[in-house]
Amino acid sequence: MTQVSAAAAEALLREWTSSESLVKHGLAVARCTESYGVRQAEVLGLIPEQACAMAELYRATGLLHDFDYDRHPTPEEHPFVGVAYLREHGWPEEMLHAILAHADYSGVEPMSHLDCSLFACDELAGFLTACALVKPTKKIADVEVAGVKKKMKDKAFARAVKREDITRGAGLLGIPIEDHIANCLAAMQTHADELGL
After folding, report:
1. Cα dihedral angle (46, 29, 3, 89), rounded to 10 degrees?
2. 49-101: per-residue pLDDT in tens?
3. Which of 84, 90, 128 is nearest to 106 (CA)?
4. What total of structural domains would you count in the chain?
5. CATH number, domain with residue 160
6. Which residue in 1, 38, 47, 150 has its CB near the most CB atoms, within 10 A?
7. 67 within 8 A of 82, measured Cβ to Cβ
8. What is any Pfam family matched here (predicted)?
């Protein structure tokens, strides 16, 4: 099995994706998902080496969840083409299951903590990016939880984002929506330079 490397995952994302906004989405989802890997490692009391490996797996999964989307955007192909490629190249099954489960039409339900984390972070990362880009500064540092919740009620704002997936994601993780927003916001603010926000 391939040692899961976020660097290798990011290289693959960039190789397959010409859209810069899609690359940025992958980076944002990766940082949010990674933050849940760090939390889960703490809950499980993992030793540092195992905790790092868990965070790396979560981050790599976020990086690769849409890596085939630029080339294969239809529901018939995404994420199935990407998952087949990853399987062929020895990426771990738990990652592939999470990638399948993030697409609600795939027939694969989110089961593991990794599955739930990716599902929960996908739409929210996109929404938080949209919230940042309407700020005069275009900075994620200026986005606050209360403002995000208000924007979620505005159906005309970022209308492609499925609000129900954000809410369901928080439920899958067993945390209040405010905590989920705060967690992902903190993860994206910490890596604002990388995300161009």
Report:
1. 150
2. 999 999 999 999 999 999 999 999 999 999 999 999 999 999 999 999 999 99
3. 84
4. 1
5. 1.10.3210
6. 38
7. yes
8. HD
SS3 track for 32-92 = HHHHHHHHHHHHHCCCHHHHHHHHHHHHHHHHHCCCCCCCCCCCCCCCHHHHHHHHHCCCC
Q: Taking Cα atoms as reference points, which of 169, 125, 127 lies closest to residue 150?
A: 127
Say how far residue 29 (Cα) sits from the centre of its chain. 3
Q: Looking at this protein, which amino acid is placed at residue 102?
A: H
Residue 182 inside a domain? The answer is yes
pTM over 0.90: yes
Give me the domain span that covers residue 120.
6-195
In a domain, 1, yes or no: no
